[in-house]
Amino acid sequence: MGIATKYSRKKKWKKGVDYLSLAAKWAYQFNYFYTDDEAESLIKFISENVVKPIELPSTLKGKYVLIDSFCFDNRGLTQQYLRAMIHNEFDILYICTANKIDRGGDIIRELTDYPHAQILLFTDDTPDAVRIANSIVEAVVSYSPAHIFLHIAPWDVAALIACAAIKGPTIYNINLTDHAYWMGASLIDYNMEFRPYGMTVSIEKRGLKKDQLLGLPFYPVEPIGHPFRGLPPVTKGSVKILTGGAVYKMLGKDDIFFRMMELLLSIAPNVYIFVAGFSSDKIFEEKCSRIVGHERVFLIGVRDDIDAVFQNCDLFLSTYPTSGGLMCQYAAKYGKPILAYRDKSDMENAVEEMVNHFGTTFRTYTDLNEMIAYAKALITDEDFRNNEGELLKQNMMTPERFFESFALLMSEGHNNALKWERDAVSYDDFSEHYLELENTGNNMATRSLLLESNLLLFVRIGGYRMQLLKCWIEIVRDAIVKRIH
What does the alpha-carbon distance between residue 452 and residue 306 come to, in Å, rounded to a whole number? Predict the structure, then answer.
């Protein structure tokens, strides 16, 4: 953060913004803290110097702006909030700060088909955060909205320096990464929370007050018009268990996730596990090859037909030590029983907060033997399996309930219908897990940061140069091997 401040004080805005964004990415990867006063001050300082501040004396109540860092179909919360605005017939200005929107075709089509929507995109190959921020402010001034919603990456400096310059509209942050560090807590009026864990962190670590927190659990978006692409062939009468997500969610904690898969496969020879989210991964495949029954584990890649995949499977296994929130919601939506395990002190991965929206029937197991016993009952008794799935389905948030709750929250007084108790959060254990993940996961965070930083880290962080150099050599080596093959 000091490097970003130094360049900004010298009015070298591009370097200041680049290092500020990089510092936020670093903080997000390791989660030793959840907000940073220096970063918040620097956002405001940069904004005051590169964006003309504006105050809208009057705003139009039915006009909404959604600023999005991603434009990803079926991921995040972009579509849930846009569809709520469309359902309630609000006027929408959608702004996406990403320079590529090739994964957001459904989003753009829905907005184009809605007569009360406008779209502002930035698709330059070399995005300029200062220019983007000024364009956002100009668009907001012209639109004169009453409400601005942020659905942004923790390091989206362009969106934040724009918001720092805008006075008048109410600013809401959609707390997408509620478990991790993000910038901008000092700029918002309200934080949209989807579970008690995020609410707890906002109060205890981000400096937000409880009356700033609006509770709104979300539902999984159903993909539009993507036909089922099939699954690997298995024997008739098999029990198909779906799991998946990012590989890092399965690593660490003595490889317990792989032990869980082995125990499930041992229940019966007709049990198969399908892993969605990636087509190949060296670390995963190496660990999986060591378990008994690994020949019944199939990688099925990233699926745009994930809804159909769920409908053609019988059970869902949540990842460990990091659970798959959205995938668990898909399972509940389609009435597929969930197998979930967590450490007793780990409330961040309590899946019940993601699926028990209107009931308390589901629980995440903290005893692995109990979870396996539950799995055995589900695998061997089809009627029991169907009943458990139906109970999950009944307790889930639906689009209709979400639209209604959103309208209620946007009414006068921001009526908050959900009353949550705080979770008991073990912050030290959580940050230690991310450090363990880095040490056991082939330096994934460092590799990711290097690829995005253009060697800024390598040049500036003297005490870290050897590890960065090692990771850079590995990246180059892997790229060469990939080209050869």
Answer: 29
DSSP line for 370-431: HHHHHHHHHHH-HHHHHHHHHHHHHHS--HHHHHHHHHHHTSTT-------PPP---HHHHH
The alpha carbon of residue 108 and the mean position of all alpha carbons in its chain are separated, in whole angstroms, by 20
**Dist CA 321 CA 424 (whole Å):** 18
* Cα 353 from Cα 57, distance rounded (Å): 40
8 Å CB contact between 250 and 276: no
- Measure the CA–CA gap between 257 and 263, rounded to whole angstroms: 10
Contacts of 49 (CB under 8 A, 6+ apart): 11, 13
**Does residue 321 have a cis bond before it (omega within 30 degrees)?**
yes
Find the largest Cα–Cα distance for the chain: 69
Q: What 3 state SS string does 67-94 have?
A: EECCCCCCCCCHHHHHHHHHHCCCEEEE
Run means of pLDDT, 10 residues per run, the chain, 485 residues: 92 95 90 95 98 88 96 93 98 96 92 98 86 97 96 98 97 96 98 97 96 95 86 96 94 95 98 96 95 98 92 98 93 97 95 95 96 98 98 96 95 71 93 81 70 60 64 67 56
Pick from 199, 154, 133: nearest CA to 36: 154
Closest CA to 234 of 158, 167, 298: 298
Amino acid letter for position 324:
G
Return d(Cα 70, Cα 60) in angstroms, integer: 26
Secondary structure E strands in 267-373: 271-276, 297-301, 315-317, 338-339
Residue 242 has φ and ψ, to the nearest 5°, of: -100, 140
195/349 Cα distance (integer angstroms): 11
Instruction: Give residue 415's identity as a one-letter amino acid code.
Output: N
